[in-house]
Design brief:
The chain is of the alpha+beta class. The chain is built from two helices and two strands, in the order αββα. A two-stranded antiparallel sheet has the order 1-2. The longest helix is centred in the N-terminal third of the chain and has 20 residues, at 4-23.
């Protein structure tokens, strides 16, 4: 369980990354659908500028991979290089 200092450190890191993204002109909306009973997540990202979307979704998938490993889960990842599907 995190104590308040750890929580504050996490908030500080989030704020630092938010400011870095803002300076680079990146913004958008993340939609997360959670299905606890089936163990599924669905993540949709709308990013401005749109050409940064693929980079951001790959970075987020790496974060999910690392967090899964931290919970002692084996990760099996498939990256689909499909055309722009909106």
């Amino acid at each position: 369980m995190m104590n308040n200092m750890d929580n504050q450190q996490m908030q500080n890191q989030v704020e630092m990354f938010r400011q870095m993204s803002q300076k680079q002109g990146v913004s958008g909306v993340a939609y997360i659908d959670v299905y606890p009973a089936s163990g599924s997540l669905r993540y949709k990202l709308k990013v401005t500028p749109p050409e940064r979307r693929a980079e951001m979704i790959n970075n987020i998938s790496l974060i999910l991979e690392m967090m899964s490993q931290a919970f002692n889960l084996q990760v099996k990842k498939i990256i689909n290089e499909e055309a722009n599907n909106g």
